[in-house]
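Board notes (copied after class):
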Amino acid sequence: MPDRIVHLQWEGPFHLPEIKKFSDKNVDYGIYQVYGRHPVYGGNTLLYIGIARDQTFAKRIGQEDWKDLELDRGKYQIYVGRLAGTFTPSESEWKRQIKLAEALLITDHSPALNKVNVSYLSEETDKTVKDLHILNWGDYGTLLPEISGLRWSSKFDSPPDYAYYGNHKRSKFILSI
């Protein structure tokens, strides 16, 4: 797969009652983030990253039982991120991009309430995610504006001839930027 750039256009913050407006079956799919108070990390902490892939944001987020999380008596905020670009891919490709973007966002940001013992970049996604770049636009909360899957893949676990500059034979290779 060639380099793939996924643009996420974020909106927020919203409270749960406002999420009901994200029910358009044509566009309201993607990734969401939940922020709130965490007993260890404090207030306005990234608590959770989830996806609305087979159902709209309104339906998917409405299924979460946030009351059980005791998130500072409902004082939590939700951001929704839709994939954007110059064309809409097939439904299966759209869903695949949502899943890969979620895995990379969770791996990169380690939200407090996502399962910590789960490897989000499995061997299968590792091969695919290495070519993925996420660009976050709009109101993306505390997420990084750009994320590279290459950083989190296993491609550079043991690169041959990797050493500090000056420890190699000089090369005439010129990096073109």
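Comment from the instructor: The chain has a mean pLDDT of 85. Strands lie at 4-14, 30-38, 42-52, 77-84, 132-138, 146-148.
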